[in-house]
Amino acid sequence: MLTRRIIPCLDVKAGRVVKGVSFVNHRDAGDPVVLAAAYNEAGADELVFYDITASSDERAIMVEVVERTAREVFIPLTVGGGIRTTADMYRMLRAGADKVSINTAAVINPTLIEEGAVRFGSQCIVLSIDARRSDPATAAETGATWLVYTHTGGQPRHTGLDAVAWARRGVELGAGEIVINSMDADGQRTGYDLELLRAISAAVHVPVIASGGAGSPEDMYRGLADGNADAVLAASIFHFGEYTIGAVKDYLRERGVPVRQPAPPDVLRGAAQSPL
Fold this sequence. Notes:
With 276 residues, the protein is of the alpha/beta class. It has helices at residues 32-42, 63-72, 86-95, 104-108, 111-120, 136-142, 163-173, 194-203, 217-225, 236-239, 245-254, 265-270, and strands at residues 5-13, 16-21, 24-30, 47-51, 77-80, 99-102, 125-133, 146-150, 157-162, 177-182, 208-211, 231-234. Helix 1 (32-42) runs parallel beside helix 2 and helix 9 packs across helix 11.
């Protein structure tokens, strides 16, 4: 049976990790390099690093911060924000990322997914989707229960895309994973949007990562067991010391969810990254 992954998310703004509620009112959570190193030692399965204002500011991602972060971790690192071309993808992979996450740029130019998958392999391409539940009138008009938004680090923009259809299309183009973030649940700490997770998981054959809304180990369990996610992503419950990676894994293990045992630190430090 495949193990389920626990993934801390580092949302970075102006070189600092922040966490907000529904993408606003950001609270400082610390230095990304320090947090990444701590999560690496604590047994996180992967890390996700988002430069959350790169797209809205129309600038490149902070390569230097990615390089410093990558030097401190020996688990898979996914980097996103401001990645618009395959050259940007290459730059991030060379900086130490194992995967690149694309969101706004993929909506603007869907062929970017295919180009990245052809050049680097689908396993390197993560399609991140920020979705908000449609109001009844919009849902009746469009047939979409959830709609995709872009530029969510600044002024979110309505795309008119059905989130489930967009996930399916992204996988057809070559995305190897889907991160589905509920804008309604983000930072609310009331649990993931399980209906959204089930809809996305049923629509694609690649791993689906739940994002937005985790406030407890129980929420993470529900995302995996009831939402059918392959991995759960969380930020504030880890950043502010309410729960540890180990405590979450113990909780999941007690409920029959297969999770990875953390590797000893000396094994982690000896792990080598494959050069491009």
